Amino acid sequence: MVGTLEKQVKRMKGITLDVLIADEIRSQIESGQYPQECRLPSERELCDEFSVQRLTIRSSLQILKHEGYIYSKNRSGYYVAKRRIIKNLKEFQSTSNILELMGKPSSVTLLHFGKMEADKKLAARIDIPIATPLYQLSRLRKLEDEAIAIERSYTFAEYVPGLEKFDFSLCSLYAVLEKEYHIVMDRAEKEISVVHANEMESELLKVELGESLIKEHGIVYDTQNRRIEYSENILLMNRFVFVK
Per-residue pLDDT tens for 182-196? Predict the structure, then answer.
């Protein structure tokens, strides 16, 4: 194998051997040769497999660790991380749909649902008048019994009268909007930042207080270019990755 990789290095200017080895191990992970939580071969075993020095293997493993494919345990080695959920910043797709396409249906626990008026802080965040009527929906999303996200949605009440009659512990907000109100979500303007878990987030997501989390927030538009929803989600850092 190493001969083939070295030939690829010579053909592909700017590509180094550690990158190609990382590509090969990544391919093995994605194919299922190394399943989730599986321990990878030791550095020495990988050196023998690819006929390279340990520094090259360590560099390859660091690439995969940085990408979130593997993680290390002290004095134990490297293990395959749980597959991350890929969210494309240029495309609009709900988290539930992404998980379904991955073959991993998720579940939600309803935290809160009710009608409200935008306070000063929320109105400034969304750029709407104070006291604008909204429906607030908060849910805890789980994947394989692991809490992975706190999802908060603020839907403009003027477009969805009577939304309170639906049980969002059992049904999808977007499915209700499409079926009952003929509103089809089309695109979103989102921002991504890093926040630190407060007490509530720490408890719900089972992480340490102050642990780094991803905050995804922004406006969602329908096919008529109307602002329908402001969403604000808190996501586990090790379960999501964003691409352009």
Answer: 999 999 998 999 999
- Nearest by Cα to 82 from 97, 62, 107, 99: 99
Distance CA 94, CA 137 (A): 15
pLDDT digits (tens, 9 = 90+) for 3-16: 555 555 545 555 78
The pTM of this model reads 0.75
Going by C-alpha positions, the residue among 209, 211, 230, 228 that lies closest to residue 138 is 230
Place of tokens 């009952």: 180
